[in-house]
Amino acid sequence: MHQPTLKLLAATGLAATALCQSALAENKVAFGLMDYQERGGRVHAVDGSLAIEHDIDTDRTLKLDLGYDALSGATPYWVQVPGYANEYQRGLARVAREKRRSMSASLLTRDADRHEYTLGLSHSAEPDYASTELSGQVLRWADDSHNRSWTLGVGLMRNVAIATANTNNSRDRNATTVSVQAGVTQVIDASTTAELSVYGARDSGYLSHHYLKIVREDPDTGAHVLADDTRPDQRRSGGLALRVTRSLKPGLVGSLWTRVYQDSWSVSGLTTEARVHWDITPAWRLAPVLRVHRQTAAEFWRAYDGSPNTFAATGPGSNDERLGDMTALTRQINVQYTASKEWSFNAGVGHYRQSRGFSARTLTAGLAYSY
Q: What is the largest CA-CA distance in the chain?
């Protein structure tokens, strides 16, 4: 079951991605596993991924990622109050066991001045949802010192909410996202780098959740009836992100990142993250992460337990928790062990908690072979 979320674009931005590709490109095959569990018997997802990175030559790098997810569990849903014909209360609806397959590929090329050009293609498919995205990015160095780079990236995504016997939509519905991001990366001194990016996006088409329901109230009788989650068919969003990375001492690197977000649904958000990479020994690396996110609610959102929690007979409306006002805290700890020049292993645990009571934990594990 696909659950559309707010598109808070990648914080590090295209500039950071391009810089990492320039500095860290290597031939590598990596395999990863992730186990995600929401508290209270809600959604459980298991994900497997395979990533291949290969330098064709000094001017071209090819990347390929394959993913496979399995989803089960339950999600919040309006259920009828026993003994009452037109009264509803919050409950849980079982999620049909589903599997999702995904792939992405990118090709990075460099010209004689080492400017970089990247083309990317990604696709994912599950029984009730499919998504395809085409993206492009240009990175240009300001001068031969390579202390400053400018980036510009664009993306075009096409989503299809596939109609099934259990969805709100009786026919397939489409949505399109056009996004753009520009950034600059600057080496401040021998120990510090700063990245600044601005981003914007425009979503159009079917943006509603094709499973969730809301409760509408008849203006004449006051009777409550279940209706489809309904959202505007247009959304414009944008924001600004800044990351500062500093080498504190040999083997210890810290970064502080912040991002602001605003969209035409009246959702505004502020995310701040602190991250450390600590080489405890030449073989062991520890990487703790702390992230705080705050956001306001969409203008058409109401909580399941809010007052009021029903909607007028017409107009947009949603109870989706991800569109509500919240404060969320994410804590992660990741460990990497480098066994040899070729082999490395990693594992991590993360915990996410919202001010509205929702929480989830994530377990990750993986291995990588460099050649």
A: 76
Identify whether 283 is part of a domain. yes
- Helices assigned H by DSSP within the chain: 13-24
Query: To 10 degrees, the CA torsion angle through 23, 11, 37, 320?
Result: -160
In a domain, 6, yes or no: no
pLDDT tens digit string along 70-81?
A: 999 999 999 999
Element at 363 (helix H, strand E): strand 359-370
Residue 244's Cβ-count burial label (10 Å; 0-12, 13-18, 19+) is: middle
Here the CATH number for the domain that contains residue 140 is 2.40.160.40
Q: What whole-number distance in Å separates Cα of residue 46 and Cα of residue 51? A: 17
Residues 12/138, Cβ–Cβ less than 8 Å: no
Residue type, 78: W
DSSP letter assigned to residue 342: S
CA distance 3 to 96: 13
Q: What is the DSSP letter of 321?
A: G
Is residue 213 within 8 A of residue 307, CB to CB? The reply is no
Cα dist. 141→61, 193, 248 in Å?
Answer: 18, 15, 26
* Cα 9 from Cα 261, distance rounded (Å): 9
Residue 140 domain-assigned?
A: yes
Tell me the two tokens of residue 200.
């914007």
- pTM of the entire structure? 0.87
CB atoms within 10 A of CB 367: 16
Token reading at 250: 């040999």
Q: Is the confidence at residue 17, as pLDDT, over 50?
A: no
Residue range of the domain that includes 94:
13-370
Instruction: For 118-159, write each residue's pLDDT tens digit.
Output: 999 999 999 999 999 999 999 999 999 999 999 999 999 999
Lookup: tokens for 354: 């919202």
Per-residue b/e over 44-66, b at no fewer than 16 CB within 10 Å? bbbbebebebeeeeeeebebebe
- CA nearest to 207, candidates 231, 229, 227, 228: 231
Burial class (CB in 10 A: 0-12, 13-18, 19+), 301: buried
Give me the pLDDT at residue 2, please: 52
